[in-house]
Amino acid sequence: MRTMVRALAVSGALMVTASIAPAMDQGGTPAAASASAPAPVSKTDIKKAIARIRRAYRSNVPCRDDVRCANYFESFGVALTFNDGTIAPFAHEQRLERSARDCIQEARTAWRGGNRALAVQWVMAAYMDDPLTRNWLADHPDAVLEALSQFGN
Predict the structure, then answer these.
(1) Helix segments in the chain, DSSP class H
(2) What pLDDT score was predicted for residue 99?
(3) Is the whole-model pTM more than 0.90?
């Protein structure tokens, strides 16, 4: 059953991506993005994301709920949509016994490695127990990335 749900989620993300593909220019950039810059991220959203990252970074308590901590990131939803039109499906990763601080460190590593989607998902994983915050982070991936770039500087 879980495999079937995962396949359905991935196929849905691929169908959305396929429907966007005709709107791409020669370089694979969305036509709307090549015509104009992506929408700017509001300072309020960036401040909120920084506050969430700081709060998570202060928690060194390992995730102990075996069921919740073993959930794959795919259970967060289908895909992230960035301001530049990029759509990224959720990863097949688990938080396991990592603390929220460990999740933020994983997010920074992914961000430095160029994997924007995984970076956002690791920040979301830090809020495994708080679905409202986790969903807000998913709805504001560009603010999370900007906050990661400013965090610790």
Answers:
(1) 2-20, 31-35, 43-57, 66-69, 100-112, 116-125, 131-139, 141-150
(2) 96
(3) no
